[in-house]
Amino acid sequence: MADYDNIQLLSLVVPFYNEGTALQTFFDRVVPILESVPATRFEIVCVNDGSADDTLARLVDISRRDGRIRVIDLTRNFGKEAALTAGIDEAFGDAVIPIDADLQDPPELIPTLVEKWRQGAEVVLAQRASRASDSFLKRVTATAYYRVHNWLSDLKIPENVGDFRLMDRAVVNALKQLPERHRFMKGLFAWVGFNTVVVQYERAPRCAGESKFSGWRLWNLALEGITSFSTLPLRSWTYVGSFIAMIAFCYGTFIVARTLILGVDVPGYASVLSLLLFFGGIQLIGLGVLGEYIGRIYDESKGRPIYLVKRRYQERRPQGRAVGNGRVIPIAAAAKRH
C-alpha cells in the first residue's frame, strides 16, 4: 500500500479510439471529480489507439492547456487491450484507475474507489449492479459467456465487471511482469490476485458516439479469454475421441455379429458416407481447436511488442514523484497546471 502520510498520485488511464465527439464531455466531467479527491494529485494518461478522426489533435490541445493530462500516441490501432496495457505501463500513480472514454462507467465513483483503497484494499472492483441498460441479446450472451468461461477455467472472473477498477501500485507492478502478447485484461486482472473489494454501480448509456466493439470483435475477445486461461477445450477432445471410438467399436462389433449370426448384409453406401462425413467434421473441429492454441504459441514465439509508441506528449514525470517505489515525496502544494 502507498504511504498515506504523503500526498498520493492517482493515474487515470483512458484508451481513446475515434472518440472525438465524446472527448471534451469526458474531461469536463472527470477533471472536477479528480480535483475533489482529498490529499491527492492526479494525472490522466490518454492513449490514442490509432484514431482516424480528430481525437489526437483534440487530446494534444487539451494536454497543452493542462499539464496533468498526458497523451500516448500509438503507431496504429493495436486494440483496446493493448492500448490499456500501454496506459498502465506509462502511469506513474500510487493507484491506477482504467476507465473508458464513453462515460458509461461513472467517474463519480472514483472517490469511493479511493476511499476503499485507503481502507486497505489493493484492488477495488467496480461491478455493475444490473444489465438493465443492455439489450436482451447482450444480457443473455454476457451471462452465458461468464458461465462458460468460469466453468472451463480454474481462474474465475467476476461477473459484470469490466476494466473500471482501482489498482494499487503493487498490483500494477505485478501486471507489468506478465509478458504475453495475447492480452485478455479481465483475466490478467483476476490472475494477479491481491486483496480485493467490490463496489456496485448502475451503468449509464454512452455520452456520445457509438460502441467500437462489433459482434465479431466481441466474439474474438470471448475466444481470447477462454484460450488464454483454459486448456480444457484441448483436453476435452481426448474424451470426445475416446467416446466416438467406443461407439464406433460397439457399432462395428454389432454389425459383424449380426452378419455372422443372422446373415444380414452390411448397410449400403449412404450410411457409410454419412458416418465418414460426420467423423470428418468432428476431426476438423478438433483440428480447429488445436490450431487456435498453436496459433497463439506462434504469435507469442515471435516476441513482438504488444504495442509501439509513436510519440508522447507531456512526457515529463509529475513533480515530486519518487522513482519506482509507488510513493509521492511530500511537496508544499499540488502540482500547478501548466
From TrEMBL:
Belongs to the glycosyltransferase 2 family. GtrB subfamily. The lineage of its organism: Bacteria, Pseudomonadati, Pseudomonadota, Betaproteobacteria, Burkholderiales. Keywords: Cell membrane, Glycosyltransferase, Membrane, Transferase, Transmembrane, Transmembrane helix. It is a multi-pass membrane protein. It comes from the Bacteria. Its main location: membrane. GO terms for cellular component: plasma membrane. Pfam families: Glycos_transf_2. This is Glycosyltransferase. It is found in: Cell membrane. The keyword Cell division does not apply. GO terms for molecular function: glycosyltransferase activity.
